[in-house]
Amino acid sequence: MRDTVHHPLFARFYARVSVAMDARGGLGAHREELLAGISGRVIEVGAGNGLNFAHYPRTVSEVVAIEPERRLRHLAARAALRAEVPVDVVPGVAEALPVKSEAFDAAVVSLVLCTVRDLPRALRELRRVLRPGGELRFFEHGLAEGRALATVQRSLDRTVWPLLFGGCHTARDPLAVIEAAGFEIVTHRRLRVPERGPQLPSSPCVLGVARRPGPEDGPEHRAD
Length: 224
Ligand SMILES: C[S@@+](CC[C@H](N)C(=O)[O-])C[C@H]1O[C@@H](n2cnc3c(N)ncnc32)[C@H](O)[C@@H]1O
Known about the structure:
224 residues, binds S-adenosylmethionine
């Protein structure tokens, strides 16, 4: 498959570091906040090693978790066995989700929009698979508000960062791309991860909820 993601070194690195970050870097609490109150059928895109799975509340009837990287997908499948809600781990990429249109009540992306190859296409896909009125939950790192760090981020993105971190970019603007894809931002807050210590290029984060407009929102919001 042309689109398959193959980052074996990054996958090994992420599988270790992400578990430590959840426990000691406060990421576990952010995952809890990301998924609080979510319900119905959920699609999670770029599920990695499945660290969100333990945080889905019982109001979720089913999670379809898409993960293109083989090692991470294998770890996600193991995490799915320990989850309190049914989780089905499936290969695939954000740019061509292997599911029907309007089939989900909610979609989840965490630390993924930085990495997908074709961001507008991935957002169009997320919108396609959500029912009208459905929620997009996001927890993403992105462009710093301060000019100095933003300049550093842009220069890292042109050089070493994507090579070192599995195709990740630091200077993307998640809120802007979500809105440009026709979602309405319902709520969001900016945060820094990790909260304390030196500011990293990936520290500026945003966590929130967007919504695919429904028919009650008027004809200008019709799906493409
Ligand atoms: C930094 S990890 C985040 C994993 C997980 N969402 C989390 O919160 O820990 C980025 C993930 O995006 C996945 N990914 C990369 N390109 C992708 C794409 N085009 N479509 C879907 N997932 C992708 C990677 O394989 C990896 O699992």
